Amino acid sequence: MGTVWRRVAIATVAVGLAACGGQDVVGTNSKMQAAPMQAPPAPDNDSRLSGNYQHTVALDLDGRMFAWGQNNFGQLGNASGIDQTTPTLVQGLSGIRAVQTGESHTLALANDGSVLSWGNNNYGQLGLSSVSISRSPVRVPGLDSVKSIASGQYHSTALKIDGSVWGWGKLGSKMSNLPVLNTAISNVKMIVAGADYTIALKNDGTVWAWGSNSYGQLGNGTTVSSATPVMVQGLSQVKSLVTGYAHVMALLNNGTVQAWGKNVYGQLGNGNNVSVSHPVNVQGLSNVKAISAGAFNSMALVGHGSVFAWGDNYYGQLGTANRVSRNVPTAVLSITNAVSISSGNGYNSVILSDGRVFSFGRNTNGQLANHTYSNSNVPVPAVGVDGVSFLNLGSVPTR
């Protein structure tokens, strides 16, 4: 039986870019008193940095969003259409707690549980009533109580607090420009999205996948695509998941990592370049705190703040001062005290505990944010919005 999708009933929704709603009030002896204002929690480190194709977005600890790189569809949140080699502040947004980038669109999750989108919309990946692009953030209608978001190449997903999964954009052979409920899966804890496929971690610890499966990225032992969720084989004790173009990684509770899917460039980190349709161990990693997957490479942040990378290194995106691809994890040069990592298409980025951002690899559209278009095979710091100082997103303890 195919996946059943139910369209959201859309009411008239005012587009508001302030993430926090009006102040709550309580009644006391017929007098109205303002409830004490509480500062929203700082964004989680795993949700502060996202780079996918050729643009990157990042959050500071106050929930402000900065963006840089490719901007041909307005994915940086400004109307210029001009690539940015230095970070720019996305105007009109505040109180953002998570960010996600697709190939050429961007999503933001606000503290009030609403979702905003902007950029390319040719497949309806912005979740709006039309398929017109938007060069500034617009609220996705009909979505509330959202817990987390994920962006694939041409589709977007949202996980609600009740464990339901909603999707829009290119959904396999179908397309929807409005969010639809995936009735084939429930009780979901986490979602991630790749190039035309989606992976979900359920509350019972099982992992499920649906969509394209040309390289075994659904992890069910086949290369047959599936419109309905299929269970990933042999996984348990999963803490988090990440997706690349056609490969997936799972961070386990014991600090080790497993991977499956496309492995042409060694992005699975298991010592060879053979694609697999079931989870295999990534070699030589322990005490891992976070993982990220780019188009054809992968990264891991280990407990003491150092970062390891593996896979394709054509642009120097492994940060090893050369362009030699690796099929096992290799230490990124000069990076210590990292707290957040993200992998794009040919480049990688990290946030350090002191708030600075370093990137390495491809820079054809300014995605390294260092005021140049030159690729770099070693980490280089992102400059500030003034183009001179260093970008600082706020200091946090190492993980």
How would you sum up this structure, described in words?
By secondary structure, this protein is mainly beta. The protein has a single domain (43-381), classed as 7 Propeller (Methylamine Dehydrogenase, Chain H), CATH 2.130.10. It is 0% helix and 43% strand. The chain has no helices and 31 strands. The strands form eight sheets. A five-stranded antiparallel β-sheet has the order 1-15-14-13-12, with no helix packed on it. It has a four-stranded antiparallel β-sheet with strand order 4-5-6-7, with no helix packed on it. Strand 4 and strand 5 (55-59) form a beta hairpin. It is globular. The model is unreliable at 1-36 (pLDDT under 50).
Structure in a nutshell:
The protein has 399 residues and is mainly beta. Helices cover 0% and strands 43% of the residues. It has a single domain, classed as Regulator of chromosome condensation 1/beta-lactamase-inhibitor protein II (Methylamine Dehydrogenase, Chain H).
Feature tags:
399 residues; mainly beta; Methylamine Dehydrogenase, Chain H; five-stranded antiparallel beta sheet; 31 strands; globular; disordered N terminus
Chain-wise SSE layout:
Blueprint: E1 5-7, E2 25-28, E3 31-34, E4 49-51, E5 55-59, E6 65-69, E7 84-89, E8 96-101, E9 105-110, E10 115-119, E11 134-139, E12 146-151, E13 155-160, E14 165-171, E15 174-182, E16 188-193, E17 197-202, E18 207-211, E19 226-231, E20 238-243, E21 247-252, E22 257-261, E23 276-281, E24 288-293, E25 297-302, E26 307-311, E27 326-331, E28 338-343, E29 347-352, E30 357-361, E31 376-381
Antiparallel strand pairs: 1-15, 2-3, 4-5, 5-6, 6-7, 8-9, 9-10, 10-11, 12-13, 13-14, 14-15, 16-17, 17-18, 18-19, 20-21, 21-22, 22-23, 24-25, 25-26, 26-27, 28-29, 29-30, 30-31
